[in-house]
Structure formats: C-alpha cells, structure tokens
Design brief:
Blueprint (H helix, E strand, L loop, with lengths): L1 E7 L2 E7 L12 E5 L20 E4 L4 E6 L6 E2 L4 E7 L2 E6 L4 E6 L6 E2 L4 E5 L1
Antiparallel strand pairs: 1-2, 2-3, 4-11, 5-7, 5-10, 6-9, 7-8, 9-11
Amino acid sequence: MKNYTITVNGNVYDVTVEEAGAGSAPAAPRAAAPRAAAPAKPAAVAKPAAGAGSIQVKAGAAGKVFKIEASVGQSVKKGDAVVIIEAMKMEIPVVAPEDGTVASIDVAVGDAIESGAVLATLN
C-alpha cells in the first residue's frame, strides 16, 4: 500500500492505494475523508414570504451569494449594494433599482442562484 496526499480545489485528501499483486486484478484507489472539515453552513434564517415588497432586486448573473449588505427594514438609495454575489471569481454587487426600504432578503450566504433570481424586495 502507498499513501499519498492530494490537493483538489484547495481541499487536502489523504489517499491510500493498494498495489496490484502478480495475477490479481488492479486495486481501485480508496480516498479517505478530507483532512480539514468543510466550513459549516450558517444557520438558516427565517425568511419572510418571497415578494414581501413591490420592488424586486434581481441577480444579473448566476453565481453564489457571497455577502448580504442590507437588512430587513434598512433604507437604501438607488445604487446601494443589497447583496454581493460571486461569479467567475469576481464579487458583483447587486444594487437597489430605486430608493426604498428592504422588505425581505430571500437568500442566504452560500446559496447558489440563477441569473434573474429575486434576491430581495423593497417597499
């Protein structure tokens, strides 16, 4: 048996590979659990019903929610960042389309989103 340490997308794995003996079938590699535990996903936050406000804040690109800049009840001006998404290793702010008050935040940090998805609503 041989032991190897392999890094895939920043995750480190210890892998043990059995050597095939004469006349036996090749052994399949067996991967052990990742060395470092994956970061815990934040606890779910109770979300108001989608569409609580009349103005929708929509994602301009597919990606992953990186940060939530505004909170429910906060006043925002046109152009203020409400949510920041990560797409293609870039942080892209999703801004308020007009002045208003945040009525709902419909996503959580780490959520995968599609282009055009409603991320928040304003009144």
